[in-house]
Amino acid sequence: MAAIHNLAVILKNPLNHAEFLLVKQTRPNRFGDEEYDSFVDSELWDLPSTRLNLLEGESESQIVVVGAESCSEKINLRKLDIDSALDRVLDQVGLAATDGGEWKFWKYVEEPEFGPGFPVHNVFITGQLVAGKNLQELCKWMSVETCLSWLLEVKPSSNRMGPLVVVGLINDSMQPADQIVPPILRYQEYPPGVKVIPIGSKTAKPFHTTNLIVFAPENVSNENEKNSFVASGDALIVDPGCRSEFHKELQKIVAALPRKIIVFVTHHHRDHVEGLSIIQKCNPDATLLTHENTMRRIGKGDWSLGYTSVSGAEDICIGGQRLRVIFAPGHTDGHMALLHVSTNSLIVGDHCVGQGSSLLDFRSGGNMSQYFQTTYKFLELSPHALIPMHGRVNLWPKHMLCGYLKNRRSRETSILKAIENGAETLFDIVSDVYSDVDRSAWIAAASNVRLHVDYLAQQDKLPEAFSVQKFHKTWPWFLSGWVWEYISYGFRLNYQKLRTWTLLISGIVAIFAVLYSVNKFNSK
């Protein structure tokens, strides 16, 4: 599969070889709104890095990277523009290529296919900085030990450590664990100990995988003997929702884990529970934790044993480490999240996704008012990272959550405007507000529109003449209208394409006809 490449540079301190250089990462753009801009993520530090582009034609990189041949089976570094990329990286810290001495290949790390875009594969190289160079204020010398303290003993709003330094250096320095994840599956371990494994699932586009979370600390303490936990175990699995063709891989993961397993399900959707039966079969002693509203919707064929009901604010203990259960309704009425306390990382289920906005399920108690409340609850937690079940880990949690608030409020304003302009049915509103969106996405959008209208009614913002009761009865008419619009829209697109090709072919024929006529005239 095609991929994007990134160059990450490990610059060693000439006065202390145990230290390497980290750079303060650039924040996302501000919203220009006082409320959203008041929620500020703490500083994020990581290895200096930049995009690594392919060289054109037969050109080759002029910078020699010692040991580059060791990864030649996967990537040819001489065909990548190392020269320009290295210049950009060193410019971030106020240095030049000559300040790094000899460059050596360190490792090549392929990112899992989180989707929907291309994965980003990272090339790590090392260099030792020439002594006596002054660094910019946005740089910091760090050791592996200091990085680990930042990662594993965090407090809300404290400095954060990015994934490149973890994947490039930290994970290698930790005690090697048993092979839990089958080699066929790529995964990302960030923060350390938390394995995020995207596996194919029956999820909605644009995604095609669900992130399976596996957490199995190496050093098990006696803290799990305390009575303050609703459940305790030696390993944790979150949302086993893979398709049947990946059940063998899931079975291998379960077999490699300790027997005392906790299974946590954020909600009942098929792409989050399809692998439950495999866990139950492989390890009947596993304990299932979920909300009672979720459990009511999980079929006996998926899980026939008992379960532990959680409603929020409970703590669970995995290998001596504490995780806090967070009630997070909105997507469904039983939706839950999970906070890993020591790293302050928040597993958010489907409240957030890696790209685009989340779909709220009106058939399963989805609620727009609760969705807003949950978003603010997450903001108050000041998480260091958001781990969605679809897409990449998000490194700017508050910015992402505020982006969701802004998007939902923007949609709400558009929906209200459509109603004030005379829209009465679900189809009227969706076709107005989502006119620039692919028709295949209108079904999903309709669910959110229904919940937005309910929320507008709750806030007493709807015009007096608008009947919410009559509006809800228009759902069947929306389906018939959508089918007609989808077919006619597809026909119009195909007609335009056909017309374009017809015009193009006609143009080519006309050009040849003119040339033929000219040649014939000249030959007379």
What's the SSE blueprint?
Blueprint: E1 4-13, E2 16-24, H1 34-37, E3 44-46, E4 49-52, E5 65-66, H2 82-92, E6 103-109, E7 120-128, E8 139-143, H3 144-152, E9 160-161, H4 163-173, E10 188-189, E11 194-200, E12 209-215, E13 231-233, E14 235-238, H5 247-256, E15 261-264, H6 270-273, H7 276-282, E16 287-290, H8 292-295, E17 308-309, E18 315-318, E19 321-327, E20 336-340, E21 345-349, H9 368-381, E22 385-388, H10 397-420, H11 426-433, H12 442-458, H13 468-472, H14 475-522
Parallel strand pairs: 1-7, 3-9, 5-6, 13-18, 14-15, 15-16, 16-17, 21-22
Antiparallel strand pairs: 1-2, 1-4, 2-3, 2-8, 6-7, 10-11, 11-12, 12-14, 18-19, 19-20, 20-21
Transmembrane segments: 498-518
InterPro entries: LACTB2_WH (IPR041516), Metallo-B-lactamas (IPR001279), RibonucZ/Hydroxyglut_hydro (IPR036866), Sec-metab_biosynth-thioest (IPR050662), WH-like_DNA-bd_sf (IPR036388)
Protein name: Metallo-beta-lactamase domain-containing protein
Explain what you see.
The chain contains 14 helices and 22 strands. The protein has 524 residues and is α/β, with parallel strands linked by helices. The chain has four domains: 1-174, Alpha-Beta Complex (Nucleoside Triphosphate Pyrophosphohydrolase); 178-409, 4-Layer Sandwich (Metallo-beta-lactamase, Chain A); 416-483, no CATH class; 484-524. Strands 1, 2, 3, 4, 5, 6, 7, 8 and 9 form a nine-stranded mixed beta sheet that branches. Strands 10-11-12-14-15-16-17 form a seven-stranded mixed beta sheet. Strands 13-18-19-20-21-22 form a six-stranded mixed beta sheet, with no helix packed on it. Helix 9 (368-381) packs antiparallel against helix 10 (397-420) and helix 10 (397-420) packs across helix 11 (426-433).
